[in-house]
Design brief:
alpha+beta, 11 helices, 72% helix, 7% strand
Length: 486
Amino acid sequence: MSFSARFMLIAMASLWMILPAGAQEVEAEADRPEQAVDAAEAAASADGPGQAQSVPVTTQAPSLAQAYQKEFAFLQGQKRDLERRIAEFADASESDRERMRSGIRTLERRVVELTALGDRLDEQVFESERSVEAARDNVNLLANTFLQAEASIEGWEAPPLEGDAQPRADDIASMFAAAQQTLAGRANVRREEGEFFLTDGTRVAGEIIHIGRIASFGISDRGAGALAPAGEGELKLWNETSGEAARSLAAGRLVSPLPLFIYETLGSEVERKGAKGLFETISSGGVIGWIIFFLGLLAVVLVALRSVFLWRAGTSTGRILDDLSAHVRRGDRDAALSVLKKRQGATARVVATAIRNLDRDREHLEDIVSESILHESSHLNRFGSFIMVIAAVAPLLGLLGTVTGMISTFDVITEFGTGDPKLLSGGISIALVTTELGLIVAIPTLLFGNLLSSWAERIKDDMEKAALRVSNQYAQARAATEQGGD
């Protein structure tokens, strides 16, 4: 509610509160003039006729009630005018509100239409860019095709294409026509006199039969057979087993099957590659490959030495017991110790310790035997830990070589790109060969290391059994002697 409306309501309430008192005062004031008039007429009659006296007439000011009535009437008129204006303003506001809502709905529909139109335009722009990129790729492909055709087709020059210039249909037709003419000229068998190299490097003169531009045969008095590129347009004899086929072709006879050496160009030499040797394979793995190789050799030596130690310690156990049994049953410990002095090995030392302590109680004797076996364990476990370390380190070194080789490969790719595979072969060779060498060393080393550890444990068990057997035999012999004495 506005300030003027609030003021009008307050004024109206005030008027209604003071209106009764104002009305009483108005009635009192209305009675007073009548009383004054009656008093004046009485005075005039008392003086008699003919004596006129002048009576002063005074103008009375409007009373407070009249002023309030006038103000109340004015305020009522103002109220009616304000109510009328408020109603007109509400109607106008509602009309403006509906008009604005209609405009907002219209604008929202327009925004949706424009958004859909923008999306369609974006899709059209994207499709146009893709079409442009595809067209540019096709142009580049045609340009590369022209360059390759110019290098392959003798006497034909590719049209100059700069920037986004597109080849003409006549240029493409000319390229295909030159290619067909070249293929027609090269798709025949021709014979000519020429020179080629034998397998020992000797240059000889003879007849060369060219089968298109993919294979050749050479025939001379000193050798014949299929020819291979020797570099710089030269040919060399690939093998002498195809000599009979070459001579048959020279005589005009058909050969089936025909031993061909198919080549792509005569510009680069084709070398005969055999199987890689051990050291060549290791060299291709770099420094890490040689480290793994020497670790493998060390593992072989350690496995062999430990096998010898364990074999010596294990094979003497049975013979020692056979030699000692008779002396122990007789209770002759000195004779048994003299036999053991002639023996060398862990089993002989453990059994000798047991024989020296046969007079002790059983529990004490077992503790002494266990202590002796623990003392001999260092000899039986010799090189065992180092062998297992080699088995664990070898594949890690192979992984290190793999990472090193891949880093080298990526460095080459960063500097020279991927155009020449030969540049990438060095890093890839290190990556693969080191992994192979690491596994070759680790797998058998781990296998033999575990087998030798199990063998050592069995020998320890045999030594313990031998010591217990000696003590049991001595105890039985002692008990038998005591019974015989009784």
